[in-house]
Design brief:
heterodimer, A: alpha+beta, Immunoglobulin-like, five-stranded antiparallel beta sheet, 11 strands, B: mainly beta, 2 domains, six-stranded mixed beta sheet, 18 strands, about 5% helix, about 50% strand, globular
Chain lengths: ~200, ~270
């Protein structure tokens, strides 16, 4: 039995080698095309595995943002302080990643900067987007109030978009009774930045 | 071949998600919730809050009504004031959530659709996750004026009646605006959402100089409109634009292959 199989296999191998030796160029091309199609079909079979990527929209605020318990300070110690505009620029006030177009609003949590019973109205502060920001959109200076106001509107989606902010106390406010003549001390208020989809 | 495909897809996946899902910050997903259901039903969805940072956070959850002004600005109101408010229908299990460092939490948002809810009109509200300041968020200032800055996420919540499915916008007008004091020019495009669902769209403006053939494509402006509302989109034009131009407005609506196209000739 084993010997019969060996003989048959040898004959088959011989006939195969003869057949291949007699192939014409056209047949070889046909063979190559067949192999190519077979390979392509095999690849197509492999690639037919479906891969689903479900993209959920997401909003992220980086902890390097200053609007994360960070503070903005204005000191009034000299006559010049009261007779000039003061600007404090806070880089990375907000670092946002958003997968959709969005806007950023700002509001104060109270009507006044408070130092015990002494008060300074919050509208002494104007906030504006600094040109160095990578977070772009419609923007105009905002006089701080307890109302939600648009700081940047229609911002395009993006990753780690940086909003650098200028906090300004104009000279007209510094030298007014709103600030001038107030008892010395620390006046504080909390400001909240809101990011939401369009 | 499959290995290459697999590698490429993994690479694309990482590129897409690394900046979003695994950022060193606090994230919320999704940013809009769309509920649908019949009047009288109770429906719920999860919002995922993730804190990838080393800090612990506490957020207060609160609701407000809102509507959009014609220039696209959202205006907030106390809950329950507006006619289309769904604030009274929305609830969460907690009013505050603790989000410790390197943690993820799901917040279940439930909507109880009233039995008498409109079967044609959309309702909406905004759910806020407001950071609560901690003891350490104090000023180092001994004298002066100090601001403590915190952040807040706004989550849109919509109720769409089951029968409302029409996506459509209409271009009402295309007008040049009067020149501003700084000589800047703009084109205003007024749209009306004549569909029955919230419509996300991008509004493009292309200008072609009728003599030189020069083409100017302005950056598309993304909008989102409630049904039955108007919105005016302002495309600011490049400086020193002069001459006769043929303008084409193209409005592409998300979830639809339909386009809205408007044409107008301008002389700047």
């Amino acid at each position: 039995m084993k010997n019969d199989l060996i003989v048959q296999l040898t004959n088959f191998q011989k006939s195969l080698s003869v057949t291949i030796a007699l192939k014409t160029i056209g047949t070889r091309i046909l063979l190559i095309i067949t192999l190519f199609l077979a390979a392509t079909f095999a690849q197509a079979q492999e690639a037919s595995t479906s891969v689903n990527i479900n993209l959920m929209d997401v909003l992220s605020i980086d902890t390097e943002s200053a609007a994360n318990g960070g503070t903005v300070d204005f000191r009034y110690e000299t006559v010049e302080d009261y007779n000039s505009q003061k600007t404090t620029t806070i880089p990375k006030s907000l670092v946002v990643t958003f997968s959709k177009a969005f806007d950023v609003k700002v509001k104060a949590n109270g009507e006044y900067f408070i130092n015990g019973s002494n008060l300074i109205p919050i509208n002494v502060i104007t906030i504006q987007r600094n040109q160095s920001s990578t977070l772009a959109g419609r923007s105009a200076p905002v006089v701080l109030s307890t109302k939600d106001q648009v700081l940047v509107g229609g911002a395009a989606l993006g990753s780690k978009l940086q909003l650098d902010l200028d906090y300004i106390i104009p000279q007209s406010k510094s030298s007014s009774n709103d600030i001038l003549g107030k008892p010395s001390g620390t006046y504080t208020q909390t400001v909240t930045y809101t990011a939401s989809a369009l | 071949m499959y290995k290459y495909l697999n590698f490429a897809l993994t690479f694309i996946f990482l590129q897409l998600f690394t900046p979003f899902g695994f950022a060193q910050g606090v994230s919320m997903s999704p940013t809009r919730l769309f509920f649908t259901g019949k009047p009288g039903e109770v429906v719920s969805q999860n919002v995922v809050m993730h804190n990838g940072s080393e800090n612990d956070y506490i957020f207060n959850i609160n609701l407000k009504d809102w509507k959009r002004e014609e220039d696209g600005t959202k205006v907030y109101f106390e809950p329950g004031i507006l006619k289309q408010s769904s604030s009274a229908w929305i609830s969460t299990l907690e009013t505050n959530i603790n989000l410790p460092a390197k943690s993820t939490q799901e917040v279940l948002v439930t909507m109880r659709i009233p039995a008498d809810a409109s079967t044609v009109e959309i309702s909406n509200s905004m759910l806020f996750f407001t950071q609560i300041g901690k003891q350490k968020d104090e000023l180092k200032l001994d004298k002066g004026i100090g601001i403590i800055a915190l952040f807040e996420f706004g989550l849109h919540v919509y109720y769409t009646p089951p029968e409302s499915k029409t996506i459509s916008l209409d271009i009402i007008s295309i007008e040049t605006l009067p020149k501003q004091a700084d000589n800047s020019q703009a084109v205003a495009i007024r749209l009306f959402n004549d569909g029955t669902v919230v419509n996300d769209a991008s509004v493009e403006l292309e200008l072609t100089n009728t003599i030189s053939g020069e083409e100017i494509k302005l950056m598309p402006i993304n909008i989102s409109m409630m049904p039955g509302t108007h919105q005016t989109i302002t495309h600011r034009l490049p400086e020193h634009l002069k001459g006769k131009y043929s303008g084409v407005v193209i409005v592409k609506m998300a979830g639809s292959n339909d386009l809205r196209v408007g044409e107008k000739d301008f002389e700047f």
